[in-house]
C-alpha cells in the first residue's frame, strides 16, 4: 500500500482516481489546487504525487519543480496527468522532475497499472 496524493482541480477526475486507487489498497489524499497540493505534500510526504498541470494558484509544473527542489522529495514519484499532449509539454514535465506523463482522457485501469509500476 502506498500513500498517494492526487492534486486535481476537476472534482470528477479526483473522485474517480480516489475510488480506483483506494480500491487498489492505497491511502489517497486529495488537493484541489497546486498551492494546497504543495502544502499537503509537505505535510504528508506521499510515495506518489499525481499532478494535473493546469490548476489554479500553482500549476502542476510549478508544484513538480518545487517538490524536486527539496531533497525531502527525492524518492517521491511524480506523475503528471494532463490534457496537454505535445512533445514539448512532455519534455518540460520530465525536465521539471516528473517520473511519468499521462494524457487526458485516460483509461482508469491503465492509469492504475502505471501507478503500480511507479511505486513498485
UniProtKB/TrEMBL annotation:
TM region(s), chain numbering: none
Keyword Phosphoprotein set for record: yes
Superkingdom of source: Bacteria
Modified residues (4-aspartylphosphate): 52
Organism encoding this protein: Microbacterium sediminicola
InterPro entries: Bact_response_regulator, CheY-like_superfamily, Sig_transdc_resp-reg_receiver
Pfam families referenced in this protein's UniProt entry, alphabetically: Response_reg (PF00072)
Gene3D superfamilies the record matches: 3.40.50.2300
Record flagged with keyword GTP-binding: no
Response regulatory domain location: 3-119
Name of the protein in its database record: Response regulatory domain-containing protein
Alphabetic keyword roster: Phosphoprotein
